[in-house]
Amino acid sequence: MGKQAKTAIEPTREKNYPEWYQEVIKASDMAEISPVRGCMVIKPWGYSLWENIVRVLDDMFKETGVKNAYFPLFIPISFLEKEAEHVEGFAKECAVVTHHKLEKGENGTLVPAGKLTEPLIVRPTSETIIGDSFSKWINSYRDLPVLINQWANVVRWEMRTRIFLRTSEFLWQEGHTVHATKEEAVARTKMMLDVYQKMAQEYLAIPVITGEKTESERFPGAETTTCIEAMMQDRKALQAGTSHFLGQNFAKASDIRFQSDKETEEYGWTTSWGVSTRLIGGLVMTHSDDNGIILPPRVASSHVVLLPIIRKDKDKTTVMDYTSRLASRLREKTYYDRPIRVEIDDRNIGGTRNWDWIKKGIPLRVEIGPKDIESDSVFVGRRDKDHRDKAAIQKDVFVNEICDILDEIQNTLFQKALAYKNKYTRNIDELEIFNAFFTPKNNERPEIHGGFAMSHWCGDAICEKRIKERLNVTIRCIPYNQENEAGKCIECGKESNKRVVFAKAY
Amino acid sequence: MGKQAKTAIEPTREKNYPEWYQEVIKASDMAEISPVRGCMVIKPWGYSLWENIVRVLDDMFKETGVKNAYFPLFIPISFLEKEAEHVEGFAKECAVVTHHKLEKGENGTLVPAGKLTEPLIVRPTSETIIGDSFSKWINSYRDLPVLINQWANVVRWEMRTRIFLRTSEFLWQEGHTVHATKEEAVARTKMMLDVYQKMAQEYLAIPVITGEKTESERFPGAETTTCIEAMMQDRKALQAGTSHFLGQNFAKASDIRFQSDKETEEYGWTTSWGVSTRLIGGLVMTHSDDNGIILPPRVASSHVVLLPIIRKDKDKTTVMDYTSRLASRLREKTYYDRPIRVEIDDRNIGGTRNWDWIKKGIPLRVEIGPKDIESDSVFVGRRDKDHRDKAAIQKDVFVNEICDILDEIQNTLFQKALAYKNKYTRNIDELEIFNAFFTPKNNERPEIHGGFAMSHWCGDAICEKRIKERLNVTIRCIPYNQENEAGKCIECGKESNKRVVFAKAY
Q1: DSSP state letters, A308-322
Q2: Which of B26, B36, B352 is best to mutate for the A interface (most A CBs within 10 A)?
Q3: Which residues of chain B, if any, have pLDDT below 70?
Q4: So what's the ipTM on this one?
Q5: Residue A92: how many CA atoms within 13 Å on its side-chain side?
């Protein structure tokens, strides 16, 4: 291979990161923009990835005692209005249903008819409608805790959309719990954040920082918002999951009261927590390269594609039989509690076939030709290595070791992402360096800046606001797992005892 | 037990069937009416049943090559209008989104703002929006067949709603396929109907009749609608699933064209097929008795509840240890590819505890007290038997045989439902008997009538309409699996060569 290798994705990350992202999604065949403004179509290759994410999370939730349920898609405006900050946060961008049928209008086209007495909004999140049910379900401390999760679609009428990362409709889960004490609700908030961290790091191979949001970045109506934040390859932050301690705000708004074991009447303490199809966007932006996406094996849509190589008709039966026997053997093996997922692609379309699977990000590509069969071996390409770097492996060895190989790829992806995040995360204590860190050096690539700055902050929202206005940089979180450390606020110089994560963000 | 046994559900089926149904659902804790008109809240006990149904169907679909995907919740009116019959069928009852935000109105309350240039409807079904994607995905015969399924919520603004059976929002799956030939599309339509029949009979224990709808009962835009029809305990029919052959109607409406292997340009042949949470309503109306629901073991929310009996404090540790060890052993066993689902209920609330589980329809209730432990046995009640009919079984025998016992219950439920359906299905050849069959004898119970009449029909929509107007009876289907038989139309006396199923229906 003396030629300069071309990349499969044009433009490259280097040339134009936002366009590269769109092209990677397109080339992977995971999803596409729909004709409905801001909504996406999730195609089978993308949906299968989502199904795997759902299965892992759902099992984790259930292990903590959470049960699934389903609540209405529509929320009456009067419900939304029950919590003042909440309505403030969501009224600006929501789909409003005002009519319940269509009728022929004057010029023969269909127009809305049957006006509703109270308009409904399509749920942007379900605290208020679920709270209404909780208020009926809960009477006594014996009914607590209530631990509910819902897998659902939600709608937020975003002005600027970007596939998977910010869409008008997206798929998510929203957990909602009620507890008898503040301590228990706070502990549940942290427990679910831990679940999200585990999911991100151990399954999606995305290293994350966990911590608390500042007041200005909190979920509307929450007392505390905790989050996992990841670094994308343009060094921007992505909020990948949030877990909220809601105090008694929503319990008061929805009248969730119970009789305590001391026979007093109390309001419940609630939490809510969610992750969405945005995780897929985060996964793509973390692991993809200039040849397309790279799927982490533990959630990959599929693990391995078998590519029979048939140059002469007489070889066809031998090669196809060998291929389908290998597929059966692989499918009998278990990786992370589920059978290995195997594709067979026997299209006769030349090199395009191999590139299709590289762009789809499948962890392993296995070529099977007459010569390989003669030596009872297979020719294996790994998506975490250069596309030309393929190796012959004895078939039985490959079958026996496939789970180890997949875990090796999983680990490589995580370590690579972790190294990237660490490389572009810096402790910064001087304002001049801080400003320079977030100022792109090259105007042609405005997205390339320093990364995450770990700097001191006095706790004042005014400093936070100034930085945001000047640099479009926000405090992503006040991270957990740090020792107190005396320092000075990067903006005003006042005393501070902790560093926070500053970054540009999606 | 000398006393007259009271029933747990009031009123009984006999006294008031529709109210009995509502009460059964309520007592089972499966679902409840929501404050949003016509929408329901599916509670954990009901949702878990749905999850099991979903898992079984999803595996069956995937075995036939179908892949899951996800399409937008919203459909532009212009899309709906592409197929004339289709829009006619759905425009009358759909939720219309006209605005994308809320603003404070004159009196301080929130009012819709940000009017959309083209209103959107919330999907009542997705042929048109999915067709738009298909038209982009398909170019050549090599791209075919396309076999897609979507698990989603849909909205039809029903005027009269009944929990699970007819709700404004419901959960369902909708399969959509495109084929190069008519034959292949017709075969797929039948294949999916067979999947539904298998699901209904082998998992839900609901015997069904399969057949084709008459023209007047077809899905709007379909060439052929095939269906599974079941008999409820009030002898009414429930359409439990449909599979449509759409011909080239939707392919023409959505411009789904492909280049054939003869290099001609052709329209695709499409199918669609769906079942919904209505299946749960059908399951309840098929198997429940006057003590509540009875869950078929193969899809039951849970299989067995362990009820520790602790009368003295000193017994507590022994009984609870024995119970939790038994639970672990049962959970290690596999029933229909999944672990046995076990509940432990240690609430100290007297007889209410046992009745709660009877009303929830769990297949097995197991009492464990100090005396049972002494003899290493358990005291087992089966939901398919009288609630007083319990038996001591050696614990090891119970553990070893639990899967057989569950399958025995499954089989009993199916056989009982089949006997009921057969008992109230009659060949009727005389109009007078036909009319009497569908005329309630007792005005206080207007729902009790004859059942299914297998009668001849000439094929004329006028006869069908007359019968509907006179008796509120419709042709449920022209059943498959019947020999041609010469006869005379029950309404007009003209010649007919087949019987059809007449019934009142949900």
Answers
A1: E--SSGGGHHHHHHH
A2: B36
A3: 1-5, 442-447
A4: 0.96
A5: 7
